[in-house]
Amino acid sequence: MTAAGPVGHDDIDALIMRLRLGTEASELHGSLCGYMAGGGSLRGSSVLAALQLDGEATDPSVADEALLQQLARQCEAELADPELGFEPLLPADDRPLAERAEAMVDWCRGFLGGFGLAGTAAHAQLSEEAQEILRDLGTVAASSFDFGNEAEDEDALIEVQEFVRVAAMLLHTECTAHDPSASGTVH
User: Fold this and answer.
1) For residue 185, what pLDDT is reported?
2) Residue 88 CB contacts under 8 Å (≥ 6 apart), including other chains
3) Cβ neighbours, 10 Å, residue 153
4) Most-buried pick from 54, 88, 113, 183 (CB within 10 A)?
5) Separation between Cα atoms, residue 43 and residue 48, nearest integer Å
6) CB neighbourhood size of 155 (10 A)
7) Which helix (H) or strand (E) holds 163?
8) What domain of life is recorded for the organism (predicted)?
9) What is the separation of C-alpha 2 from the centre of its chain, rounded to a whole number of angstroms?
10) What is the helix (H) or strand (E) element at residue 47, kind and residue range?
11) How many whole angstroms separate alpha carbon 67 and alpha carbon 52?
12) How many angstroms separate the CA atoms of 161 and 186, rounded?
């Protein structure tokens, strides 16, 4: 990772190992995205405190805190991207299908947890479409997979990933529209 480059899956995986957080990289990214999409604010709070994550290691180093803040800024910018450039942080496409599918489940599980932690008044005002999206994300988060035809399975994962990508942006847009103070909360 370069100082100005985006935080990647491997960067977060290494951070989790250093801090012994007991979560997966995709789940951590999902939690942070869910927290922000739900209108959560990081003002005056560290990423780990906001997400209620405690590692077995001692306090994060300055570099680790900086990486978490960079990831938070990246999530916020991507969720609000008018070009719809947001992507869930998952293992690379060259990783085994089963690993990527499990990471998608982890990401959705994290997203729903983070969304719930945000706990804003905007949640009470969610549209029927947004409530249905949350239910669908819950279905993905509770999934287990049976793999058969690799090409069909790959296509199915791509479809789920596209749904999740758009769902996160829609929820972010709806929650931040109800709570204007939720925008630009990462410092």
Assistant:
1) 44
2) 26, 29, 30, 33, 104, 107, 161, 164, 165, 168
3) 16
4) 88
5) 13
6) 11
7) helix 150-178
8) Bacteria
9) 21
10) helix 47-50
11) 17
12) 26
Q: How far is CA 41 from each of CA 45, 56, 128, rounded to the nearest angstrom?
A: 8, 25, 24
Show the tokens assigned to 30: 């999902």
Size (the chain), residues: 187
Q: What is the tens place of the pLDDT at every residue in 90-140?
A: 999 899 999 999 999 999 999 999 999 998 777 788 999 999 999 999 999
Strand extents, DSSP E, the chain: none
The Cα angle at residue 96 between residues 113 and 51, in degrees rounded to 5? 15
Quote the tokens at residue 65.
């805190």
Q: Tell me, what's the pLDDT at 178?
A: 58
CA Rg, the chain, in Å?
Answer: 16
- In single-letter form, the type of residue at position 126 comes to L
What topology is assigned to 9-182 in CATH?
A: Four Helix Bundle (Hemerythrin (Met), subunit A) (1.20.120)
| Ranges under pLDDT 70 in the chain | 1-4, 55-58, 178-187
C-alpha–C-alpha distance, residues 39 and 99, integer Å: 30
Q: Distance between CA atoms of 98 and 93, rounded to whole angstroms?
A: 11
**Contact at 8 Å (CB) between 51 and 114?**
yes
Virtual torsion, Cα 79, 29, 164, 123, nearest 10 deg: -70
Spatial CA neighbour of 65 closest among 89, 56, 40, 73: 73
